[in-house]
Design goal:
This protein is an all-alpha fold. It contains 8 helices and no strands.
Length: 166
């Protein structure tokens, strides 16, 4: 489906939690894998678009000890990886784990929204983006996700409003 393949996949990839701090040290970036190189390598592979490698490395990294924060970030990254691989049921499982481990991270909400949107579940996707925006109101990724999902709802419903946006 072209919509999922282009826009939603890009949104999930944008929510991968990096292995190295970004230029300028943005406070919203979570650095994972400081002591677990497999998690860091998995994040790097996902950011490079190598979803299969990223998922494989992250799953291997989860077998090693890691902090709760790193574990939550890894599950969020797995969610993004599975979205990239079009394995939406697996993506949803991983995002649910990430959210259960750390409700203060907006990324798994965005990644789960991507999985929901790819499955045509736009109201649920919108609810997740709104939950993410409560955590990170200025997130450019979430704001773009919000626009895309609202536009998609508008095109499907013909009015631009659904029960979730009313």
């Amino acid at each position: 489906m072209p919509f999922a393949a282009t826009v939603i996949l890009a949104l999930a990839a944008a929510s991968v939690q990096g292995a190295v701090p970004p230029e300028g040290g943005a406070a919203s970036e979570t650095v994972i894998g400081a002591r677990n190189s497999l998690l860091a390598d998995g994040a790097t592979a996902l950011r490079a678009g190598r979803a299969s490698d990223g998922v494989r490395l992250t799953l291997e990294g989860l077998k090693l000890p890691a902090s709760v924060g790193d574990t939550a970030a890894a599950h969020s990254n797995l969610c993004a990886g599975y979205v990239l691989l079009h394995q939406y049921d697996q993506a949803l499982v991983q995002c649910n784990i990430a959210i259960a481990l750390d409700r203060s991270n907006w990324r798994p909400y965005n990644n789960r929204a991507a999985a929901y949107a790819a499955c045509g579940r736009y109201d649920e996707a919108l609810a997740d983006v709104m939950a993410g925006l409560k955590i990170a109101p200025g997130s450019a990724v979430l704001l773009l996700s919000l626009k895309i999902i609202r536009d998609r709802l508008a095109s499907e419903h013909g009015t631009g409003r659904s029960a979730a946006t009313a």
